[in-house]
Structures are given as structure tokens and as C-alpha cells.
Amino acid sequence: MADKDNDRTHSEDRRVTPAPTAAAGVGFDNSKQVAEAAKRQEEEEKKRVEADTQKMEEGRKLVHERERQALEERQKVEDARIDAERKAREDKIKEDERLSKLSPSERAAEISPFVHSVPHFTPQNEPIHPAEFILSEANGQRSRANAYIADPATVLAGQMLKKTAEATANQFATYVPATVGADCNAIAIYSGGTIPGEGLRISIIVRDAEVNGKCLVWGSVTAPEQIIAAQTLAAAGIIIRT
Question: How many Å apart are CA 105 and CA 115, to the nearest integer?
Fold first, then answer.
């Protein structure tokens, strides 16, 4: 029994005790790895800052270049405008000097090369339009009346009329073109010619109105008679403005 105990003792003595190892994370020095990681991070941050700075610098250069180009374009346009104005002034001075040396006939021929070869056209005068002579009139139809123009006659807008007959149940008052101032009782608003056997029916101004004297048609009424006509019309409230 004692021999067995001794053998077990010797056997335990012959066991090799393993070398102690450091437990994971206990007493391990990783300061070197931390320092290297911090250095790499610092270098990456530095590169990022340098890249951002380079981009900003390139952006500033691009903006500056665009502004410079725009300024140059504006300056070119302004220079061209100034040159054009200066040339126009110089050309006008030269042209005035040249024209001053021409005779009146030469200048007329230069303005119109056909002045001596083509006959001038006869001036065309625009006729007076219906109611053109009326400047103002009373409200409603108080200034107007219907008239029957006896045949034969041709009446123009603004022409002086003489009343020859009062209105009847079947006919308007009858008028004819006036020939003297005292007979100017109304003014034709519209133009027209009579039809044989039918006459002409138009509207006329008979009272309370202002008319343009330059648009009136006097017919055979002479200048002295026109003064009397103005007085006759004024008695009916028709005022001639000149």
C-alpha cells in the first residue's frame, strides 16, 4: 500500500507544470497599435482636409475666371458701342459738310432722285365724314330731327339747310340746301342724294349743339352771309366753334 502511494507521489512529481500565460485582455500592452491607428486616422483626416482645400481653391479660381471673362465681354461691348457712336458722329460731320457744298437743286435731287423726272401727284383731300362736325349736343335726341330733302338735291354732311315746310302726319319737315345766311335753319348730319319722286330722308341738327366751323359745308353761302348764318344758328342754340 505504501508502495502505491510512493508511485503516485513520484508520478505527480514527474508532471510538467505549463508556463503561465497572460489571460486575454489582462495585462496586454496594445499602446503601439493604438498609436498606429491614431496616426493613420490623423493622416486620413489631413488628406481629407487637403482635398477639401484644393476643391475650394479650384472653385474660387473657376469663379474668378468666369468673372474675368464676363468683365472682358462687357468691356468689349462698351468699346464697340463707343466706337460706333464716334464713327456715326464722324460720318454725320462729313455728310453735313458734303451737303453744305451742294446747290438746292442738287440737294433736292439727292433727296428724291425722281424729283425732276416724275410728275407730282395731285393732293387728295379727305371728305367730311357723317357727324364729324358735331362737338357736343344735348342729351337724348333733343338736338336732332328728321328731315325730308326735296328732289332734286345733293346734300353733304355738315351742309347748311333751309326749312321750307313743316312736318305733317305722313312727312318729315321739308328742307333744301340754304343759299343765304338767314335761311340757315339746320345742319345735315349725313350725306346723300335725292331719288326722283322719293326725295331723301336724313337726320339733322336743329337746336342746342356745338359744331366745328372748319367741318361745315357752306355751299353757295358767301363769307358775309356766313356771319349772318352763325347768328341765325346761335338763336337756335347751335354755336359754331372755330
Answer: 9
